[in-house]
Design goal:
The chain is an alpha/beta fold and 307 residues long. It is 48% helix and 8% strand. The protein contains 12 helices and 6 strands.
Length: 307
């Protein structure tokens, strides 16, 4: 059975001025990631504004990425919704396409207790056949707890977990609970700052926004770690830190979209309109980000573009 492994981008979504998905740019982003050596693709992600898309837009995003990938790498779209019925419909669409798996968070907005969160996932698992990747993202939804993950990991269809807590303490306890359950679940980090520590502690890779912006760096961390070049892996990991802080200096996901624009992609407006203060901050962040990106990309023979 498929199990996620390697460097996956949590893909950002380019939009036209009217808010519709920019298919041409999404195809370019997909091709960019594959040619840069990414091991899989995660469209309809949190950073990709999947939560703001209609059901039809989520399906359209899956369709475009899957079609462009042409089987070269596994595609694992998000199926995020506030109730399991829509998650199930999205999972069926992904399965009909031929996607390798799907990624699901706990329900958002309401904050159900752990037993309801567990039942949410069980409902999806009972009514779908496609492999499922659990997604823990406490920044936005009710956190998964260790014992819920332990019990869910016993389902054969639960093949991976993306932990975006940013906590190596939580990551290790999740991993240990899965081991106690005797389950075969690949653990991936959802924060780009800890890919190297994740690999060092037996993790299987990452699903991060920066993998789509700086695939050379993130794949470089992976490759150098597995080649035993720890000093270079550590240097590349540390190079990500100031880039991440800079992109988070403006409302999510605008800073990350600025990064892709500086790489030559037309990302369009965010689904959620910027405040006047955030709009004013954008030009400052763009200038600083460009300055920081130039030496990093130059190492790989790449350059920023005028934006």
């Amino acid at each position: 059975m498929f199990r996620p492994k390697g460097v996956y981008p949590a893909m950002l979504t380019p939009f036209n001025d009217d808010g519709s998905i920019n298919e041409g740019e999404l195809r370019r982003l997909t091709e960019f990631g594959i040619t840069k050596g990414l091991h899989g693709l995660f469209p309809v992600s949190s950073i990709g504004e999947g939560i703001h898309m209609s059901f039809e837009e989520k399906c359209q995003c899956m369709d475009i990425v899957f079609d462009q990938a042409k089987g070269r790498v596994p595609v694992t779209p998000g199926i995020v919704a506030s109730a399991p019925a829509e998650c199930i419909r999205l999972a069926h669409h992904a399965e009909d396409l031929g996607c390798a798996g799907v990624v699901a968070t706990p329900p958002y907005y309401y904050k159900p207790a752990a037993p309801m969160v567990e039942r949410f996932f069980e409902t999806i698992l009972e009514q779908t056949e496609i492999p499922l990747i659990l997604y823990n993202i406490p920044l936005f939804v009710q956190p998964l707890d260790y014992d819920t993950v332990k019990r869910l990991s016993r389902y054969d269809k639960v093949v991976g977990m993306k932990d975006s807590s940013g906590s190596m303490v939580d990551f290790l306890h999740f991993k240990d609970k899965i081991k106690i359950a005797g389950a075969d679940v690949n653990m991936l980090c959802g924060r780009e700052e800890i890919l190297l520590p994740t690999l060092a502690m037996g993790g299987s890779g990452c699903m991060t926004a920066s993998a789509g912006l700086f695939p050379e760096v993130m794949v470089g961390i992976w490759d150098n770690y597995h080649a035993g070049n720890m000093d270079e892996a550590r240097r590349l990991q540390e190079a990500m830190l100031v880039l991440i802080r800079t992109m988070f200096a403006v409302a999510l996901p605008v800073g990350f979209k600025l990064g892709l624009e500086l790489r030559g992609f037309k990302m369009g407006p965010a689904k959620l309109p910027l405040s006047h203060g955030d709009a004013f901050q954008v030009s400052t962040v763009r200038s600083r980000l460009r300055m920081l990106m130039e030496p990093v990309l130059a190492e790989f023979g790449e350059a920023t573009v005028d934006a």
